[in-house]
Write a structure and sequence with these properties.
Layout: E1 5-10, H1 14-26, E2 30-36, H2 44-49, E3 54-56, H3 59-64, E4 70-73, H4 80-89, E5 93-96, H5 104-117, E6 121-123, H6 131-141, E7 148-158, H7 174-191, E8 195-205, E9 208-218, E10 223-229, E11 231-242, E12 245-250, E13 262-267, E14 271-276, H8 282-296, H9 304-320, E15 322-324
Parallel strand pairs: 1-2, 1-4, 2-3, 4-5, 5-6, 7-10, 8-15
Antiparallel strand pairs: 7-11, 8-9, 9-10, 11-12, 12-13, 13-14
Helix pairs in contact: 1-8, 4-5, 5-9, 6-7, 7-9
Length: about 325
């Protein structure tokens, strides 16, 4: 029986320092043992909340460590698949940030390596562990807003003032791979199905996308429209419009930072009903679910096959998109 899962982190990224590192340290059944960085001083902030955490001078050294069971990978997007495969080859379970691959082909390579190794590999798609999204899925499945006819989504932020940001580098894959995973994956999670992309318009800047407008349709009828941008005012929203009501999720992707996680249900004759989830900690819950799956052998709630479906949508958008000027 596996006890506490001992974790290492590849890189001292800001997101790992502020969110996933503390989540691993706080999660039941997990221990943060090491962080790999060429600059040991960058590991010091991790040691403030996890005093036993040590610094490793290279990613390869961390993967070779015998006291590491699992690794979390928050590296730049284009390095995710490479180091996920290396972690599996080193005998480590691995939780990798979104997107776990840059293409469906890369995700397929990881699935094959996972199956060959018998280890758990997963994309860190935290929202499926949040009760806001679990409740939204249940409401739709139970007919809480009738038959869903249309879904809308948006996720935008503006990093134009930071040209050195890794998300403003062509090799990192642009806005679709950075935040498209949210508007696509969340709709797929709630509906339990995959839509077909019918139309897309994308604006490119220096070899990477900064705006994408997408229309798609689910096989059983609902239509879908959404947009993402890295050049617009910060905004997040997801709505599911049914024959008997409209369900809106506020702060759907990073609650507490963006705002309170709520589900607003608008229905004729019943006014507005609001369900709130102020205390949920989706990163911590994600780590605990990962650890629990390894201990029990039960399927992980967000397997790579689900992540593959989201990547398929991203690939479809980029394949058929009409370029936008200006």
């Amino acid at each position: 029986m596996i006890g506490t899962l001992r974790w290492g982190i590849l890189g001292a990224a800001k997101f790992a320092r502020e969110h996933m590192g503390p989540a691993i340290h706080a999660a039941r059944g997990a221990e943060l043992v090491a962080v790999a960085s060429r600059s040991p001083q960058k590991v010091a902030p991790f040691q403030e909340f996890a005093p036993g955490c040590r610094a490793e001078s290279s990613y390869d050294e961390l993967l070779a460590a015998s006291d590491i069971d699992a690794v979390y990978i928050p590296l730049p997007h284009h390095l995710h698949a490479e180091w996920t495969l290396k972690a599996l080859a080193a005998g480590k379970h691995v939780l990798t940030e979104k997107p776990i691959g840059m293409t469906v082909e890369e995700v397929d390579q990881i699935i094959a390596a996972r199956d060959a190794s018998g280890l758990l590999a997963a994309e860190a798609y935290m929202i499926v562990h949040h009760p806001q999204w679990q409740r939204a899925r249940q409401l739709v499945a139970d007919g809480g807003i009738g038959e869903v006819r249309h879904i809308t989504g948006a996720f935008t932020y503006d990093n134009s003032a930071d040209p050195g940001n890794i998300r403003n580098q062509p090799e990192a894959g642009g806005g679709l791979r950075d935040i498209g995973v949210y508007i696509f994956g969340s709709a797929r999670f709630v509906m339990g199905a995959d839509p077909t992309v019918e139309h897309a318009r994308v604006r490119f800047e220096n070899g990477y996308d900064t705006f994408a407008d997408i229309q798609a349709r689910f096989a059983d009828g609902p239509t879908y429209s959404a947009y993402v941008s890295t050049r617009m005012h910060l905004h997040q929203a997801m709505e599911f419009h049914g024959t008997e009501g409209l369900m809106r999720l506020t702060a759907p992707f990073n609650p507490q930072n963006f705002g309170e996680a709520r589900i607003e249900i608008h229905q004729p004759g019943q006014g507005l009903r609001v369900e709130r989830f102020p205390a949920a900690q989706q990163y911590k819950t994600q780590v605990e679910a990962f650890c629990a799956s390894i201990r029990s052998g039960e399927p992980y709630p967000c397997p790579l096959e689900f992540s593959r479906g989201t990547q398929q949508m991203i690939d479809e958008v980029l394949a058929i998109a009409t370029p936008l000027d200006g």
